TrEMBL record:
Its main location: cytoplasm. GO terms for biological process: actin filament polymerization. It is a peripheral membrane protein. The gene is PSTPIP2. This is Proline-serine-threonine phosphatase-interacting protein 2. One of its GO terms (molecular function) is actin filament binding.
Length: 334
């Protein structure tokens, strides 16, 4: 904490100037704006985290991922989808945490705003009173100086009328001189009173200015510390999210380490095997010689069907009633 830099470095030699005070107020307004920007950043980041978490959750629960896989790899994929689901839940939880941090930032801004408002009201009143009294003092000075010039002119008029015979006119000049002297005394007294009042107001204003500087500097130190810690906490939350996600993914890696190619192949064979004896070779069968079963090399074989033997060769016997010769027939022409 510095404690005294503001009250030592924000003055002006012009009594009407509030440049030091205005500079501090402008800086505090920027600081409040910066807090609001970080607050909005947290809210936007929370919306992004929430949307990402919900999209990831929908992906994990609705999109198939190796659903027909078997045995150890199937278990690894189940762990994978479950951990993706867990990561999605973590992102949704992070969104809620970020919104809570944004709410704290908003509360801090409003608290400082109310604290500043009290001091600003006091300073605004002090500035108005100082400026008003300065104007009154300058008006009183102007009146006083004018009365002094009037008195000087009256004195000169009296000196110029010393040789006049008209006593009545001389009396008027003396009366005017006396009146002007009285006016000078009155305005001088009023002017001095305004100067004294202005000095008292100036001292009060300076005292309030010092108090305001101390309040504002303390607020600025508090704001910088609060924003710094809020940003630090935000980064810790993001880092923790990464650590948590990695721990969940590590569960998947451990499950993958238990995956066995040999066991999955063996499991598939045991569950889906169809037999251990392959089909026998198909033999060649001659259409005319069914007993010759040797297959000719390079020749396709047919089905093993029963075949008829060759037809008998008829014998041409003239006396055989079952046969006739062509010469036994004659052609008839119509």
């Amino acid at each position: 904490m510095t404690g005294s830099l503001f009250k030592s470095n924000f003055w002006s030699t012009d009594i009407l100037s509030n440049i030091g005070y205005d500079t501090i107020i402008h800086h505090l307004n920027n600081g409040r704006k910066n807090c609001k920007e970080f607050e909005d950043f947290l809210k936007e980041r929370a919306s992004i985290e929430e949307k990402y978490g919900k999209d990831l959750l929908s992906l994990s629960r609705k999109k198939p991922c190796g659903q027909s896989e078997i045995n150890t790899l199937k278990k690894a994929l189940e762990v994978f989808k479950q951990q993706v689901d867990n990561v999605a839940q973590c992102h949704i939880q992070l969104a809620q945490t970020l919104r809570e941090e944004a709410r704290k930032m908003e509360e801090f801004r409003e608290k400082q705003k109310l604290q500043r408002k009290k001091t600003e009201l006091v300073m605004d009143a002090a500035h108005k009173q100082k400026n008003l009294q300065f104007k009154k003092t300058m008006d009183a000075k102007k009146t006083y100086e004018q009365k002094c010039r009037d008195k000087d002119e009256a004195e000169q008029a009296v000196h110029r009328s010393a040789n006049l015979v008209n006593t009545k006119q001389q009396e008027k000049l003396f009366v005017k001189l006396a009146t002007s002297k009285t006016a000078v005394e009155d305005t001088d007294k009023a002017y001095m009173q305004h100067v004294n009042t202005l000095d008292k107001i100036r001292e009060d204003w300076q005292s309030e200015h010092v108090k305001a500087c101390e309040v504002f500097e303390a607020q600025e130190c508090e704001r910088i510390n609060f924003l710094r810690n809020a940003l630090w906490l935000h980064l810790n939350q993001l880092s923790q999210q990464c650590v948590t996600s990695d721990e969940m993914y590590e569960q998947v890696r451990k499950s993958l380490e238990m995956c066995s190619i040999e066991k999955d192949i063996e499991y598939f064979v045991n569950q889906r095997k169809t037999g251990q004896i392959p089909p026998a070779p198909i033999l060649y069968e001659n259409f005319y010689c069914p007993n010759r079963n040797a297959a000719a090399p390079g020749k396709a074989t047919g089905t093993n069907l029963a075949r008829r033997g060759p037809l008998p060769v008829p014998k041409s016997l003239p006396d055989d009633p079952d046969y006739s010769l062509v010469s036994d027939y004659s052609l008839l022409y119509q």
